[in-house]
Amino acid sequence: MLKGLRTSIVMFLLVFTSCSSTINNEEELLHWLGDMDNGFVKKNRANGFLLSMKYLPPEYLAINEMKKDSNDNMKDLNQYISEFKNSRTFLLTISNDDQSMNAGNYDVANMAEYGARIRDLSFNIKEILTLKTTSGKKYKPVLTTMENSYEIVNKRSIYMVFSDDEKEIMDSEQLDVVFEDTFLDTGINHFVFESKKINNLPNLNFN
Amino acid sequence: MKIINKVHLLFTIVVILLSAYLFLQQRNVKKIAVVNAQLVLEKYDGFKEAQDLYEIKTKEMSETFEKQKRAYESKSNELEIIKKKLSKSELEVKKGELEILRAKTAQLGKAIENKAKVQEEELLQGVYNKVNDYVKRYAEANNIDLIEGVTGSGNILYASDRIDITEIIIEGLNKEYVEGIKD
């Protein structure tokens, strides 16, 4: 009798703790996305650099887009989400233990080299970024942009979007984003995401 | 009875002092470990992938050079065949053209060689930095004061298996290469 009751309580807790996972505001969403246990962030380290790759789900991108449009009607959220649901967007953030060092000025001797580095990070970085699916197919990003930090912080952030017509990227069980670093001496960096994790964002209940 | 109590007290004090001494001794003992650096590189997936990538890149460059070399050889053979039919001035022009092509081919070979060397250094530097970073974090996490890298031509003649952490390092590096680091 007692054993049966205990099983029922455990089952109740299991079911309700997994189903009651709801995100109520943007702050909670950011916190949830940043929690490494949820599988949306993968990190690598070498040569004093910390490379953090974050998967940005369509929901997050949609909310950002709504803010840009000054639209706070959450009934429009699904419409915005639909614009992003056929692609995968990631954000690569590069920082260094040394506060004066960043991806823009590492191993740079003069202004000309600095300009070339910024151009590389802004426009040529797609040549060294690849997304590998479970079947081994490789894709280059269809879009990359470097966020302008105005040298305020020692971080550089690069957005990248991967998309294909065959839905291979969307259907792949694993997504391995490979950064073949040629600037910072951190080598080949793999960021492997499990689709079952990144497709499992809790319900958003923004009011 | 009193004597027994005194002996007991004395014994307890001795045990406490001895424990404290051993504790302090233990704290002062420096932890040392050794790693077979060559084996780590050989078994590290990051090194294997860097090698594969280097081979792909050099193969592409090598094909470009071979194409240019074949063009030079073809022109050279062609000149051998037709040179008897050419006037002296025509032969001089053809020889000049061939010399320019030879110089260009040699220049391309040199440029490719330099580029391949730079790429090899870049790829290896990335691998070394990854290994060094992991070893440093491993040492800090396990309170190791010194990790010696054993190489074939190094100066460590003997190290006990008890302080050899090569396999642990390889396993950790390969796991981290796929899964990334934990916060």
TrEMBL record, chain A:
UniProt keyword list: Signal
Signal peptide (residue range): 1-22
Protein's name according to its UniProt entry: Uncharacterized protein
UniProtKB/TrEMBL annotation, chain B:
UniProt xrefs under SUPFAM superfamilies: OmpH-like
Entry keywords, A to Z: Coiled coil, Membrane, Signal, Transmembrane, Transmembrane helix
Residue intervals passing through the bilayer: 7-24
Coiled coil: 65-121
InterPro entries according to UniProt: Chaperone_Skp, Skp_dom_sf
A Pfam cross-reference name: OmpH
Sequence similarity: Belongs to the Skp family.
Name recorded for this polypeptide: OmpH family outer membrane protein
Lineage, opening ranks: Bacteria, Pseudomonadati, Bacteroidota, Flavobacteriia, Flavobacteriales
